[in-house]
Amino acid sequence: MVVVTALLIVAALAVSYALWWWFTGRNVPKYPPLAIDENDPAMRSAIKAARGSLDRFRVLFDSKAKESQVKIPFSANTGQIEHLWAEVLRFSEGSVIVRYLTPPVSHTGKLERVHEHPLADIEDWMVIDKHDRIHGGYTQRVMFEQARKQWGGLPPELEKQASRYVA
After folding, report:
1. Where do the domains of the chain lie?
2. Dist. CA 1–CA 156, nearest whole Å
3. Beta partners for residue 126, in sequence order
4. Among 73, 83, 143, 161, which residue has the least CB neighbours within 10 Å?
């Protein structure tokens, strides 16, 4: 009887953990969010540079690069605005159809991953070319610098990614 009770307790704990992981644990971002003021001059400058170079992004996208992404604002159902990276699936007249890559931290419940956003929503872009170099990523470069300051350095995999950016 004691063995059966112990097995039931272990099974209940395993099911509880599995449920927590399925609904919460797997949706936790790999790195903590950075605290960057929305009026940060470096970030504002990066967004301006990204928006000013959308023609270059379209050329790189059309060149059949390995990967093309945009950073767009997302309104979570909690009322918070998050800035998500999304894979570019295609362009349409005045908009871009994307698949969200990064899970929103403040959103709860189910979220469809494919969305259409006006081109004016694009805050940044990046393209990974056939040589694994990263073009664009203006806000990402600012975030790397902020992460170095806030975290005392970048994790090795992010430092490796940062070294792949080209002018």
Report:
1. 1-30, 34-162
2. 51
3. 69, 136
4. 73
Closest residue by Cα to residue 81 from 113, 105, 101: 105
d(CA 137, CA 69) in angstroms, rounded, equals 9
Beta carbons of 60 and 129 less than 8 angstroms apart: yes
What number of residues does the chain have? 167
Write down the pTM of the prediction: 0.74
Q: Write down the pLDDT at residue 100.
A: 93
Where do runs of H (alpha helix) occur along the chain? 2-23, 41-52, 54-62, 138-151, 156-162
Residue recorded with tokens 């918070």: 80
Place of tokens 């170099």: 133
